[in-house]
Amino acid sequence: MNRTHWPTPAPRLREEGGWFGALVGALIFVVTLRLGISTAGTNLDESWSAVIAWAHVQGAQWGSDIVFTYGPLGWLNPYATYYPTIFTTFFVSQIVLTLGIGVTFGLAASLLRGWGTRLVMLVVLLVLSPRLNSDVLLLGTLILAVAAVERAALVRSAAWRALLLSVVAVLCATLGLVKFTFFPLATGVWLVGTLLLAQHRRALAAVGWLLGVPAAALALWLANGQAVSGFPAYLLTSLEMASAYSQAMGAGGADQEQAVCLAASIGIAALLLAWLGSDRSARLRALMVVGYLAAALFIAWRASFTRADHAHIFLPLVALALLVMMGFVRDLLPQLRYAATLSVLLLSGAAVLLIPPGATLQTYRTTAENVAITWNQVLNPATLRANQDAGRAGVRSALDLPRVREIVGTQRVDLLTSSQGVVLVNELNYAPRPVFQSYAAYSPRLQRLNEGYFLGSSAPPFVLLKIEPIDARYPTSEDGLALLALWRNYRLVEIERGFVLLKRVRDVRDPIAPAAVSYVDAAFGEWIDVPAHTSAMLMHLDLGQSLRGKLMAVLLREPPLLMEVTLDTTVVHQYRLVRAAASGGFLLSPYLVNEISYVQWMYGDRQPAVQRVRFTTAEPEQLSLLAPRLRVGFTPQELPVEPAEQLAPGIKAILYPGLDLAPTKRHGMIQPIVEDGRPALFMHALSTMDFSPAPGRYRLTTRYGMRGATHVIAGCAEAQADGIQFQIDVVNGDAATLQLQRNLNPFTTAQDRGLQTATLDAVQIAAGDSLRVTVAPGANGNLACDWGYLAELRLQPLPP
Q: Is this entry keyworded Electron transport (predicted)?
């Protein structure tokens, strides 16, 4: 017998298992159907989900208007946020999508033979039921799809076979456009399915499948408003994001999870190889399916372990892959079937028992409650919509930006960095940059796309700014070129609920130079002096990987690169830096930690300059994964600064609460806070602020103190914190005239706790003088818990 051929199964085998497949399909449909979540607010994940729904409604083009890890059908994610415009479409689509998933699971289940094997699958699905959601469900469906095609090929009725294959074809095409991770799997099912049908001598079905899957994908692409000519750009930009994902988004987890999943990988690899060795009558079929399952599990491994260690994603997918294998090897060696059966049971148990939150009764109770809630929603769609609208109204109330809406009107507006839900819930005319969430612009090309958007003719008139870096990244390194483009072309017009509204006032078109002016070669851990600069300093980083590091990045993830900086003190500030993004350049200095410091610098408030920088990794052994030497490039950049006098009084009160005038110079860690319900400026020792009032004689009133939590935190007492020294001087050059000095030690003195008040009746300011407020360490020079704040500084002019 030819080894690449297998006999057509007997008619009895074609029909057996249909009832079991129907049972499994119905259970999957009932248990996994979900109808989305509530309206997006400031949450990062909810925000991107809302943007994808918005893009679907607006007909935005993927690959040019929108660049993201999810595709144009990403709005079909079962856990998508509520978007009123497409409520009915989403509601119906989820039912249809889950029906397709149920059919696929059912077909794969009906390939199993024997009561024992079928009982195993039921047990596995029951045990894994809390895990069958989101990526596990959708990736698992694509893994089972090859078994579904195999089972459909055995159906006797041509019409029934065509219907089943059509359902699976449309489902695979749909999932391939939901998320780019799914696209290669959908492509694999398409190719392997064609060969399986051809091997079964289902020529018409094979041709129909070969043409039907891409035809379904094309129809879905067009139905979602996408241009055919835009598909190559979608593939290229998605590949760009995928290739840089492991170094940008890598985050470690528990070693135990990696060990369990590595053991599972070795186990299933051994079983798949055993299948290849034993299935001599149909080796080509085995080779195709084994190759597909291996590729699918590699993608599942990356999906599980790049961002963090998520064994609860990987182990269920391995279990589902073993179920596929059990369907294909039903006529082979009993030992192989028994080994696969035992493995799938162990994996299912490990997926729930070994990995938090664990197989507790509450886990399954919650799953049952979610199923009941979903089906109540299915039966009462009007109530569901009313509840979602009420929730949306609550989010709108909490994030209401009436002043912003009044200023912007119907003009276009974007938002940096990742709280896009705020724009959408306020019903502003959203106009996003291509990589619409800043953390995702993690390669030079992606950063250039966003920079070009803000420097080009299609730039929006307004931008909302809220700097929220993820994973403790250096704040101005996320979408760094876009932030610089905003600085060059936009200026502040309003601040509301912590969101800074910028308006386009210039038309600078030239991009930041792609290479630095000068470079310094250095080793890891070596401090590098930042060249002196009067305005801004950009930094480029040229750092490669070792061969071992490249292999690790492919198989797992790239280790986090850490950057440490010092300002004008010895305090070291540590951040994460994305290697690829840093090579494109970003603002290193001044040290801007949030949108408020960004705006303060924009209006002449000199923020602390970065003096030194060095690079390292979280663990010493990770250094071997990177090149031994690195090149750091520096480029001084003059950026326009506006006079503080242009700030409206209301905005000045937000930037500098309780202050009559804006500071002209600062040093140390200073940022807005709320203390005892009052706005204030946090000042950690050692920090200073200089002010330049007009010459004259003043009555000065100030309120200050140490943060209330300081004296009750156990760690502060253990560190023998000694409080702060609050001081006000009149300064001229190197000369300083003391006006006020007060030591506060709330750890030993009760009256030093809470808000302190002082009034100076005759402060004389001469030409060239400045007023300096200083928060210094306490009497013993201990910097621990030196959490001072300035709540008020008022200057009342007095007669000469």
A: no
Q: How many CB atoms lie within 10 A of CB 479?
A: 30
Instruction: For 514-540, write each residue's pLDDT tens digit.
Output: 777 889 999 999 999 999 888 899 999
In the DSSP assignment, the letter for residue 622 is: G
DSSP state of 33: -
Q: Quick: pLDDT tens for 85-120.
A: 999 999 999 999 999 999 999 999 999 888 888 888
Residue 15, pLDDT > 50, answer no
DSSP at 160: H
The rounded distance, in Å, linking the Cα atoms of 333 and 275 is 9
Cβ–Cβ < 8 Å for 165, 117? no
C-beta neighbour count of 427 within 10 angstroms: 9
Q: Reduced to 3 states, what is the DSSP secondary structure of residue 645?
A: helix
- pLDDT category at 726 given cuts 50, 70, 90 is very high
Q: Which tokens is 786 given?
A: 């030196």
101 closest CA partner among 168, 173, 161: 168
Q: How far apart are CA 35 and CA 140, in angstroms?
A: 19
How high is the pLDDT of residue 495?
93
Domain holding 21, by residue range, is: 11-363
Tell how many helices (H) and how many strands (E) occur in the chain.
25, 21
The Cα 766–Cα 601 span in angstroms is: 26
Residue 3 lies in a domain: no
Q: Are strands 412-416 and 429-430 parallel, antiparallel or unpaired?
A: parallel
Q: Tell whether 166 and 188 lie within a shared domain.
A: yes
* Residue 310, C-beta contacts closer than 8 angstroms, at least 6 positions apart: 253, 257, 304
Residues 228 and 354 in one domain: yes
Higher pLDDT: 11 or 26? It is: 26
What are the beta bridge partners of residue 677?
A: none
Q: How many CB atoms lie within 10 A of CB 22?
A: 15
**533-591 confidence digits (pLDDT tens):** 888 999 999 999 889 888 888 888 888 899 999 987 677 899 999 998 899 999 999 99
Nearest to 641 by CA among 609, 603, 595: 603
Q: What is the dihedral of CA 40, 43, 46, 52, to 10 degrees?
A: 90
Single residue among 363, 397, 420 that ends a domain in this structure: 363
Cα–chain center distance at 172: 26
Predicted pLDDT of residue 304: 83
Mind listing the pLDDT tens digit for each residue in 577-630?
Answer: 999 889 999 999 999 989 988 888 888 887 888 999 999 998 888 888 899 899
Q: What is the pLDDT of residue 8?
A: 44
**Same-domain status, 600 and 734:** no
567 contacts: CB under 8 Å, gap ≥ 6: 573, 591, 608, 609, 610, 611, 667, 668
- Would you state the pLDDT for residue 12? 42
Q: Is the dihedral of CA 187, 190, 195, 196 positive or negative?
A: positive
The strand pairing partners of 725, in sequence order, are 743, 776
Contact assessment for residue 469 and residue 378, using Cβ atoms and an 8 Å cutoff: no
Looking at the structure, tell me whether residues 130 and 52 fall in a common domain.
Answer: yes
Give a yes or no: residue 357 inside a domain.
yes
Contact 439, 473 (CB under 8 A): yes
Cβ neighbours for 151, distance < 8 A, ≥ 6 positions apart: 17, 21, 107, 108, 110, 111, 327
> From the CA atom positions of the chain, what is the Rg in Å?
31
Domain end call among 646, 668, 689: 646
- The vertex-571 CA angle with 568 and 577, nearest 5°, equals 95
The CA-based angle 355-356-358, given to 5 degrees, is 85
Which residues, in sequence order, are CB contacts of 134 under 8 Å at separation 6+? 77, 78, 79
Q: How far apart are CA 502 and CA 494, in angstroms?
A: 7
